[in-house]
Design a protein that fits this description.
alpha+beta, Dna Ligase, domain 1, 2 domains, three-stranded mixed sheet, two-stranded antiparallel sheet, 5 helices, about 20% strand, globular
């Protein structure tokens, strides 16, 4: 029996194969040809558990299929974003990073020392945001919360 790697994103299991198929389908619907290089890139994007930038995605795809160009990576990511299957995040002072769009809503903490991105979800924060918007006469249509953080140092 073959083991299928899966992610658990806030209670939801999604296989890498399913993600790869979604990404491939999005490109095909847009009329983009699926070359060996693009197929390798799609597999890398589907398997990413972090928030890699285009250069890191290029490095990972190049390990699978040497010869993929950085311009192919950028063009493919732009098309995937326009198809709504990946999200581009522009964290302060960093290159754009990418993640799969079909995850439950979550927010991000960015470690200012290491650049690590930590995903989190807080019902308290969601409720408070809705209360603030309602008190000011609004409904939230979309939001994004980014916290820039630094690990606490142990007391000496």
């Amino acid at each position: 029996m073959r083991h299928t790697p899966r992610w658990r994103k806030f209670g939801r299991m999604i296989s890498i194969e399913t993600r790869t198929q979604e990404l491939t389908g999005a490109l095909r619907r847009a009329g983009v040809r699926i070359t060996r290089q693009r197929a390798a890139l799609l597999a890398v994007v589907a398997a990413a558990k972090d928030h890699p930038d285009a250069v890191e995605l290029h490095r990972r795809a190049h390990e699978k299929v040497p010869g993929i160009s950085l311009s192919t990576v950028y063009r493919t990511l732009t098309e995937l974003e326009s198809q709504g299957v990946i999200h581009r995040h522009q964290f302060e002072g960093e290159a754009a990073r990418f993640e799969h769009a079909k995850t439950a809503h979550h927010d991000h903490m960015i470690d200012v020392d290491t650049g690590a991105v930590v995903e989190f979800h807080s019902e308290r924060i969601e409720k408070l945001q809705a209360e603030i918007a309602a008190a000011l006469g609004y409904d939230i249509v979309h939001h994004r919360l980014e916290l820039y953080v630094r690990r606490k140092r142990a007391a000496d």
